[in-house]
Specification:
Layout (H helix, E strand, L loop, with lengths): L2 H14 L10 H4 L9 H10 L2 H10 L1
Organism: Nothobranchius rachovii
Protein name: Translocase of inner mitochondrial membrane 22 homolog
């Protein structure tokens, strides 16, 4: 293997591999207004309403 292949695999491992760091993208860190953390129920409802399936059904019905 040449060095470019090794460098590519190291970058790939850093970005999407097991060594990837979980980033906390809270609005306070990103410069937005501080908001209280969302509960698991709020996150679940938000994911459901932002899903393509929900939006498609809503577009057909509404």
């Amino acid at each position: 293997m040449d060095s470019s292949t090794i460098q590519y695999s190291m970058v790939l491992e850093h970005l999407i591999g097991e060594k990837r760091q979980i980033k906390d993208l809270s609005p306070g860190v990103m410069g937005g207004l501080p908001t209280p953390p969302k509960s698991n129920e709020q996150k679940m409802i938000e994911r459901g309403m932002e899903s393509c399936a929900f939006k498609s059904i809503l577009a057909c019905v509404g």
